[in-house]
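Researcher: Re-running this chain for the archive, since the previous output was lost when a drive failed. Same request as before.
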Amino acid sequence: MAKNFLTPAETAQSFIGIGDYKTKMPVPKIIISSFLAGAYIALAAQVMTTVTHDMAGSFGVGFTSFIGGCVFGIALVLVLVAGSDLFTGNCLLSMGWLNGNLTSKQVLNNWGLVYAGNFIGCLFLVWMMYTSGIWDAHGSQIGAHAVAIAYKKTQLTFLEAFVRGMGCNWLVCLAVVIVAAGQDTMGKILGAWFPVMVFIASGFEHCVANMFIIPAGIIASLDPAIAKVVISLHPTWDISSLNVQAFLYNNLLPVTLGNIVSGAVLVGGVYWYLYVKGSKETSKEPQKAEQTGFQAAKLGRKQS
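Model: Regenerated structure tokens:
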């Protein structure tokens, strides 16, 4: 009878090979794969915005955040089960770097390409939502909610955004670990969904999600009808402060740094130290490690 999960040690060791496989993918494949991941995250963020746009007044902020998390959970299911490359998950390449399989150049090159691809995918979805007219639905309430979410994110202090980024990717990378450990489709889906639901309900910050959410809010705020609704609901807000500079410096930069610290250190570094360092089962030979990672990445699909 086939085992339907890997042990923590087996899972951690598989990431060494997976890192070799990911960093040796051709650049066009990395860009396309990361474009898909950005689009998947953006789709989930838009669904969350639509579902929760009129809930808080009736059900309260806490329950609305929980429902938003439940809906957004589809994001990592699409990324990890359907297959694509997400920057926050690839922070786990730190395990291969710590083990000596990957160079700093390989890790940073992959991170840069995936980050760019994720951003392009998110901006593509911003264009789709803008041209679709969805933000104008329900008396522009959906668009107004998109603006409100984006505005609140750009009002965080640098430290607040950084720490929320840490909390987010701690959970996201744990979801990646759980999915890698699962050897059947349902186990992978649940493993991806629960941690993501928790990070959304907790109010943590994900840099790739914000690559869609905040640009979407900026674009939506330029629509006079949407801006009028926002001002009527929040008369003290200065939505002109919701701009590219606020997006980049008040949110994206600190959140990205927080995501890297928690993903690369609190998950990648800690799990490498606990289960990989000094292990006789982990190969430092690139070819063997690459094959092991590829097999680990595909094993769940074959058995499910």
